[in-house]
Design brief:
The protein is of the alpha/beta class. The protein has a domain of 142 residues: Rossmann fold (3-Layer(aba) Sandwich). It has ten helices and nine strands. Strands 5-6-7-3-8-9 form a six-stranded mixed β-sheet, sandwiched between helices. Helix 3 packs across helix 4. The longest helix is centred in the middle third of the chain and has 18 residues. The radius of gyration is 19 Å and the shape is globular.
Length: 261
Amino acid sequence: MQLISLQDLSVSYGGNTVLSNVTFGISPGEIVTIVGPNGSGKSTLLRSVIGAQMPSKGTVNRSPDLRIGYVPQKLHIDPTLPMTVRRFLSLPDRVSNAQATSALEQAGAGQLSNRQMADLSGGQFQRVLLARALLCQPQLLILDEATQGLDQPGSAAFYQKIETLRQTLGCAILMVSHELHVVMAASDRVICLNGHICCEGEPEHVASAPEYRALFGSGTQGALALYRHEHNHSHDHSCGHDHGKDETGGQHSHPAHEAHR
């Protein structure tokens, strides 16, 4: 059973169509990445999945009592406002010390509870936002450009944490990012969006699809080939042509990950 399924979803603002006839679903434990140029409707799609944006037409079906955790692209907190990480986690709804401690430890931020939010580095701030999203023990974790502003090692470490959470919590993950080679290598399935779904499938197949290369260029395929990602389960592909297994057995080297070993 899918956690979320979208059927022929379209969204328009003031007569301007932002998304058109988008259909896809997310299964438990799956990591799905949405890529696309600026203005392609990525954030609108996430808002539709969450329920913050009503579709102009089409449907969004969620499994009953689905728990969704959300890590926003950015969150501004007044730097002059005294607020500890622990206090931040209890806004707007108070959580117990045990809940806060567990979420921070899961996010790799267990030592930050008494720190001031204004004093956190970019990477620490994102870990705290991740902890906040984990408070509900989500079945679906949604990340909207969650590593924006982080350097490459910081981004790689963050995505490693996401993979660990998928394994330990069993949650599905839906994420948007411009860091194509990193997020695609960390994904089970990639959706290339430009107002509609241009192509969809396993990362190595999307990277070689004409629709993807027309948007991002052929260089990204070479970058993806440097990564290693184990694929021991199958997905449907819809990149406009049939794909068999790649010659390497679906494995791609992960230098960014190996740098943190």
